[in-house]
Design goal:
0% strand; mainly alpha; 72% helix
């Protein structure tokens, strides 16, 4: 039973990050805090894909002559890791655009509080 919990520790961490990110996006009124929540949510999804694609006692997908015959079970599938690298780049770009938009919103309305913004936009 203990081995089960220790073996799935990464998934508990991912679930905690997912809940924190969702909570930040849904219940925080400050737009910067919502953006931070979105980044935490994105990080949890990226960690989930990387954790689920890893194998115990597997190595990077470079053929090693010391391992002898080529057995695909000895190597990690590089596709999920590559896709998550792309997701990280998209995440950084999204955060940059969002921060630029937040600067424009703050210069125009002098607040980043969601409720005050909605009142001023009426």
């Amino acid at each position: 039973m203990t081995d089960f919990f220790i073996g799935h520790m990464a998934y508990y961490f991912i679930i905690a990050l997912l809940i924190i990110g969702l909570w930040g996006m849904l219940f925080k009124k400050n737009l910067v805090k919502k953006l931070i929540g979105m980044n935490i949510l994105q990080a949890s999804i990226i960690i989930f894909y990387v954790a689920s694609a890893s194998k115990y006692k597997a190595t990077v997908p470079v053929i090693d002559s010391r391992l002898g015959a080529i057995n695909p079970a000895d190597y990690i599938n590089p596709l999920p890791h590559t896709l998550m690298l792309t997701a990280i780049v998209v995440s950084v770009a999204t955060t940059g655009v969002a921060l630029a938009l937040l600067i424009v919103i703050y210069k125009r309305f002098k607040t980043l509080n969601e409720d005050e913004l909605l009142e001023r936009m009426k």
